Amino acid sequence: MDATQSVSAGPFAFVNFSLGAAAGTVCPGPSRCTNGAAEPAIRADATGTFYVSSELGLSAGTLAWKSTDGGLHYTALESPNQISQGAGGLAPGGGDTDLSTAPQPNASGVHNVYVASLSLANVTVSTSKDGGQTWSKNILSATIPGDDREWIAADQATKVCISYHDIVTFNIDVSCSFDAGATFTQLGSAIDAAHAFLLEENSTGNLVIDPNSHVIYQVFSGIANAAEAVLPASYHAVWIAISRDGGQTFTDQAVYVNPSTSVSYGHQFVNATVDRAGTVYVVYNDNHNLFYSFSTNSGLTWTGPIQINQAPSATAVMPWSVACAPGQLNVVWYGTSFFDGTAPDNYPASAAWYVFFAQNRNAAAAGSKFTQVAATPVIHFGGVCEGGISCTGNRDLYDDFGIAVSPTTGAASITYSDDQPGNTGSDDHTAIATQTAGPRICGGS
């Protein structure tokens, strides 16, 4: 569809539209803007250019888009995997896409863009050094083959790291490249020797690098101690692995351990972000409510949990966050007013889901408040399965989505999965909600 839908709530307004699959298509616009992709990722580079990637599925490739006008229009790029846009086109990767932009420009004055996608056999990292016009790809980016759920984060002009589960040990491996993804020559383990009990007992979250201190953070949920590996417990602990030597070694730190072993934060996905002052924020959910913790000393100690969601979002899942100016934090999630104590897999057809957006301009202070609004029309009705490929219920929203903020304007652009008008999966597509009014972060008014 080509139509845009404007949503105004509280002090905020957003314009929503679908993206086009064919390279060169500008959306919204006169061309038909449709795609069949899902589970998207979004980042902004230092110039305020937004990039989006979204998966077509394992071995089916990845789509990508770019916006140079603050997220009001997106142009479809040539596929990062160089796949045929026609039916039946195949390419490496295509699963679990993630995206990153280099904080510093390359020798040509352009910020490198990296798109990671999963093939299960390995991780494909595609690199563009010219703003998404052309791509090179490394289909063997993971140092250890046989992988699941990769994440990617860039540092400086040409360093890029990926994290992933290796299927044999379920360790969270971190591989780094110093030549813009051409080769990955450094391997570290996010689970340190003192916390080896977390092997096989963790659910990964994203990878993030502080561009000022170059500290690397990998978040995940898991059990709380070695005894729980023998007497199984839920993933009621939120962890962060911290590397202060560029990803060579990591030390694990507990962000929050819920005293109840029946509570689980092992839902897609624990998420982390860092503001310009180096404050780290970690966002996590228990399949009902959404919380965050923050650290002002590079992850050594933490304040939280602090609940984010409020009515009408009685259920909040699949969070993503972005911080910018000191203390300023935006968080998005899929939310519905329905909650009956069961997993969202079993929610009735009447449960209406939206993308919720919450902003806190003083998030590094306990007791500070979020302003929350729905940023989209209804994007889904009914159950939401979070079990990945093991799902037997509705998986139209897949496993995550994202938000980025332009560092030049402070306005947010959100990319999300939408299955409306709702023909049982056949209408799945990647869409955009871009902020057009309301308070901004990155120092924006």
Helix content: under 10%
Second rung of CATH, namely the architecture: 6 Propeller
The biggest beta sheet reads: 5 strands, antiparallel
Oligomeric grouping of the chains: single chain
Amino-to-carboxy terminus distance? 33 Å
CATH topology: Neuraminidase
Describe the structure.
This protein is mainly beta. It has one domain: Neuraminidase, CATH 2.120.10. It is 1% helix and 42% strand. The strands form seven sheets. A five-stranded antiparallel sheet has the order 1-2-31-30-29, with no helix packed on it. The longest helix has 4 residues. It is globular and about 60 Å long. About 2% of the residues have low confidence.
Keywords:
mainly beta, Neuraminidase, globular, five-stranded antiparallel beta sheet, 445 residues
Tell me briefly what this model is.
This protein has one helix spanning 227-230, and strands at residues 5-9, 12-18, 26-27, 38-44, 50-55, 62-67, 74-76, 95-101, 113-118, 123-128, 136-138, 147-155, 159-166, 172-177, 186-189, 202-209, 216-222, 237-243, 251-257, 271-274, 280-285, 290-295, 303-307, 315-323, 329-336, 352-360, 371-374, 380-381, 402-405, 412-418, 429-437.
Secondary structure: elements and pairs:
Blueprint: E1 5-9, E2 12-18, E3 26-27, E4 38-44, E5 50-55, E6 62-67, E7 74-76, E8 95-101, E9 113-118, E10 123-128, E11 136-138, E12 147-155, E13 159-166, E14 172-177, E15 186-189, E16 202-209, E17 216-222, H1 227-230, E18 237-243, E19 251-257, E20 271-274, E21 280-285, E22 290-295, E23 303-307, E24 315-323, E25 329-336, E26 352-360, E27 371-374, E28 380-381, E29 402-405, E30 412-418, E31 429-437
Antiparallel strand pairs: 1-2, 2-31, 3-7, 4-5, 5-6, 6-7, 8-9, 9-10, 10-11, 12-13, 13-14, 14-15, 16-17, 17-18, 18-19, 20-21, 21-22, 22-23, 24-25, 25-26, 26-27, 26-28, 29-30, 30-31
